[in-house]
Backbone:
């Protein structure tokens, strides 16, 4: 089996170039690739488009941040395509000031648009958003007696994902609710970097228990404190 | 003279009494989350959390938190025996596919056509819809959970929502701290009123069409 290169968080961050579309796993910071995000924040690469469930948590009182919030704080995103920004007041400030373009997408639609990009589909039909602002300007498709919105695929240049464990081939296993968007992001991007807490030998993960097949993964990065 | 006193507990208790054993239920963050504390003895529902689990359990004991196990509001939670985890596509497949029996969500405005607005006040507060649009469009029964009045005294039950909609004509039931309503035929149908309020008091203070059902009764949660 082909082994995947294990690289540093900084080497991973260096693959993200100005202007790229970046898909990041995680849900309000749970299941986020924190080491690669920290390295990308240190590099300061700008003009990025983010595709992620949310812009994570930034608490101005405690100074606590999670997930992609450090990248938001440094103004590294020109555009964010997310379902929720309510726990990151800095995103809202940038949106109101016209500094960052914020596109809000219903969470299930976001998941399906990313999945469509990764699975060769020309889009998905959903009833979510009918009769709301989300439907404005979108094609409607009638199937039998039901009307759906056509939602288009959302591919990316680089996916930064987080898993609990990888084998050296790049097969991944997630932990609990830290799975969320990670497997979807892994399918939808030209380059996929998986940050993991543990790397085991090929054969040590039961093939029946692989969550993301190795072929989706290009590079592995060890999380802080990983083994 | 009846004076209105905000009471979130009564809303949570009334919603909890709707469910039967085996129902799959998604509780929104905030007021709806309280519902889990009031499930009647002997009723076992399966709580779905849209970040990727079935079998959502209570908060862990202090010191037992797991960074990889949270609810959709990022609070640490536990999983009950028989529960399971899945990715976001599966989670919303469950939701849109009609496999969630009930969803209870918070409200900015709900109107007599069943329209719900709960994700945006243009120019003021734009948190994003998160999973709410999918939950309201996909769940079998949508329960709007809200205090009856805003701080200003205006009722949150409207003839017509003025804020951007989360979903059109999807709300089935509305539970407030003065009564329990069904949305049907372009009206709020009052099923129960809560002590010390009366149907007349509720109709007087709600700018919407309310029909008092012949079966309407007083529910006393004191």
Residues:
């Amino acid at each position: 089996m082909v082994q995947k290169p294990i690289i540093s968080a900084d080497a991973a961050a260096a693959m993200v170039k100005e202007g790229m579309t970046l898909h990041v796993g995680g849900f309000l910071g749970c299941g986020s690739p924190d080491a690669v995000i920290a390295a990308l924040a240190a590099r300061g690469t700008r003009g990025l488009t983010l595709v992620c469930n949310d812009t994570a948590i930034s608490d101005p009182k405690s100074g606590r941040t999670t997930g992609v919030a450090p990248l938001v704080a440094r103004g590294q995103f020109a555009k964010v395509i997310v379902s929720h920004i309510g726990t990151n007041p800095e995103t809202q400030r940038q949106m109101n000031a016209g500094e960052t373009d914020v596109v809000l997408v219903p969470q299930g639609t976001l998941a399906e648009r990313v999945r469509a990009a990764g699975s060769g589909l020309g889009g998905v039909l959903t009833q979510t958003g009918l009769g709301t602002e989300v439907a404005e300007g979108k094609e409607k498709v009638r199937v039998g007696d039901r009307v759906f919105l056509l939602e288009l695929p959302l591919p990316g240049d680089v996916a930064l994902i987080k898993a609990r464990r990888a084998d050296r081939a790049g097969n991944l296993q997630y932990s609990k609710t830290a799975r969320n968007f990670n497997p979807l992001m892994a399918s939808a991007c030209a380059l996929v970097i998986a940050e993991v807490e543990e790397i085991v030998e090929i054969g040590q993960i039961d093939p029946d228990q692989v969550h993301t097949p190795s072929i989706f993964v290009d590079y592995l990065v060890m999380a802080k404190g990983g083994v | 003279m009846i004076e209105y006193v905000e009471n979130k507990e009564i809303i949570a208790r009334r919603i909890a009494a709707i469910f039967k054993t085996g129902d799959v239920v998604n509780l929104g963050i905030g007021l709806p989350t309280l519902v889990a504390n009031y499930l009647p003895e002997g009723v076992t529902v399966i709580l779905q959390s849209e970040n990727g689990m079935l079998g959502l359990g209570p908060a862990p004991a202090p010191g037992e938190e797991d960074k990889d196990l949270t609810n959709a509001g990022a609070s640490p939670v536990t999983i009950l025996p028989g529960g399971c985890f899945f990715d976001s596509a599966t989670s919303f497949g469950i939701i849109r596919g009609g496999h969630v029996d009930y969803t209870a969500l918070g409200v900015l405005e709900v109107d007599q056509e069943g329209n719900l607005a709960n994700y945006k006040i243009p120019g003021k507060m734009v948190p994003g819809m998160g999973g709410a649009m999918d939950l309201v469009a996909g769940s079998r029964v949508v329960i709007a959970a809200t205090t009856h009045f805003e701080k200003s005294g205006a009722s949150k039950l409207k003839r017509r929502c003025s804020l951007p909609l989360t979903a059109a004509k999807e709300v089935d039931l509305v539970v407030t701290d003065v009564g329990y309503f069904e949305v049907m035929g372009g009206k709020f149908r009052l099923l129960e009123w809560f002590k010390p309020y009366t149907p007349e008091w509720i109709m007087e203070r709600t700018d919407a069409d309310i029909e008092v059902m012949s079966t309407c009764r007083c529910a006393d949660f004191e």
